Amino acid sequence: MNNAKIAWITDTTASLSEEFIKKNNIYVVPLHIVINQESYKETIDITQKEFYERMRKEDSKFQTSQPALGDFVNLYSKLKEDYDYGIAIHASSLLSGTFQTSVMAAEMVDFKLVPLDSLTGSYPLSFLIKKGIELVEKGLEINEVVAQLNGLREHTRLFLVPSNLDQLKKSGRVSGGQAILASLFNIKPILAIEDGGAKIKDKVRTEKKAIAWLINNLKKDLETKSVKKAAIVHANDLERAVQLEKLVNETFPDIETELMMLITVAGVHTGVGTLGLSWVSE
Length: 282
What we know:
- α3 packs across α4 (98-109) and α5 packs antiparallel against α6.
- The protein has two domains: 6-29 and 68-153, Rossmann fold (3-Layer(aba) Sandwich), CATH 3.40.50.10170; 155-280, Hypothetical Protein Tm841, Chain: A,domain 3, CATH 3.30.1180.10.
- The strands form three sheets. The chain has a six-stranded mixed β-sheet with strand order 10-9-8-13-11-12, with helices on both faces. The chain has a four-stranded parallel β-sheet with strand order 2-1-6-7, sandwiched between helices. A three-stranded antiparallel β-sheet has the order 4-3-5, with helices on one face.
- It has helices at 18-23, 48-57, 69-82, 98-109, 122-137, 142-152, 166-170, 176-184, 207-224, 238-251, 264-270, and strands at 6-11, 26-29, 32-35, 38-41, 62-65, 85-90, 113-117, 156-161, 188-194, 197-204, 229-234, 256-261, 275-280.
- By secondary structure, it is α/β, with parallel strands linked by helices.
- The chain is built from eleven helices and 13 strands.
- Helices cover 43% and strands 26% of the residues.
């Protein structure tokens, strides 16, 4: 199937640049952002920056929802005309129903689809897509491409440090009592997207300790594996993100860095000012 015409499909949690999407003919299905029951298509009706600015200013209810089944049905009906099959790499199926909806739509219109549950989102998801495209261009068979990408999933790291627990409390991820205690004692939870789900990895007392924790975890991975690039993710707090990037550059001069806005699916729970570090070990 090396000469087959392949379509690449993903969703807006992949944080791919417009330039990369166009260059590689990637079809990106947007997730929906819901503010006080009003729905917006991410990156089309509202940018991630606009979303975080509204979250900072408004006392509204912020939610996200997966793409509608119809969005995928329409896309796959069109792709069926021009492509032999599609490779869909989506956000973790434990964090969003996008993956399941994508698979269902392909079955409905009889479009041949190779679906891959990334078990992550944000930078690691974009990494898997780029890697997949690179492997296909090298002429690897599709089953080998899928096997390699599946193997990389356990080496993805995405750690997030919320600036405060207000949004986690609103979204029901922590109780009010825990949030008050944490703010009194200045406790910072460190969240990880791991095995497809979100979990609290650790709790530290200050932001300085949280940053040190992130750097140490990258150091640990470098003892046994190689990391070519790290992404500094932020929920519309460029100033702190640049400071973290500078620290990563000074500590690991051989690692390339990229600044990236945090995907809104995560930001809805962690809030404005969240800072994080992400990489994939090879």
